[in-house]
Amino acid sequence: MSIPPRALPALAVLLAGALAYGALCGLLFLRQRSLLYFPQPRAADAPGELLALPITGGPPGARVLVTVRRRPGPKALLYFGGNAEDVAWQLPRLEAAFPDHALYLLHYRGYGGSSGQPSERALFADALALFDRVRPDHGQIAVVGRSLGSAVAVHLAAHRPVDRLVLVTPFDSIEAVAARHYPLVPVGLLLQDKYRSAAAAPRIGTPTLLIAAERDEVIPRANTDALLSSFRPGVASLVVLPVEGHNAVEDSPRYLPLLQGFLRPDPSGEAPGESPQPPSRPAS
């Protein structure tokens, strides 16, 4: 079968487009972790004491660092940060907000002096290891996860008995978020680290609070709503703060009071002065 000469230019354009698309997909596959993780070095003047957790199965001396504020007693708070966050700088505000809690802020692998490279499997394993290290000293462990850290927190709460769970600017899965940002790319086939929080949420029974920005350029509201609706009825609630921007939530004057109210041993699980929203259907 021969191709008419007049069809050759169109065929060449189509072939060039296919090659360019394939090259783009290949580049995204090879560089995906550099596009997802932005490790921050530990600053010389970073606050807090450091706890070192050995990495099971890692090379000799491999460790994950945790910024800590030690406190005797039953209450502890574990914090998992965003993908470009130096969690040590959360310590001063959390110290002021939770004076009766021991604080543990995990530096992901490759972040803040921790060994290795970040990945979904590594972050999940290190979160479980931190909980198991802390549990003998503290019977009431609250967990706060922000952005990427919300997926780490969800995984932990699905596998360990946490007391309270707070998810800040959370999402249903990285796969779903990426699909909204890159609708023409087969992200489900390319992604190695999918962070499917919505799949883990039904296993969680602890009181859970989701906090979102009114407008978030990184995590579409539909992805937060999809996560919310994945929890069992009565487990999770959502508070939307009237701020614009993915990183604006923690700067809201209502943010820390909201955390304080929810993490108090209040049987209702609601923060004073707020009206959490019930689970809703994901937006289309």
TrEMBL record:
Keyword Hydrolase (UniProt): yes
Pro residues composition-biased segments: 275-284
Record keywords, A-Z: Hydrolase
Molecular function via GO: hydrolase activity
Start and end residues of each AB hydrolase-1 domain: 95-170
Region (Disordered): 261-284
InterPro entries named among the record's database cross-references: AB_hydrolase_1, AB_hydrolase_fold
Domain of life per record: Bacteria
Protein name, per record: Dienelactone hydrolase family protein
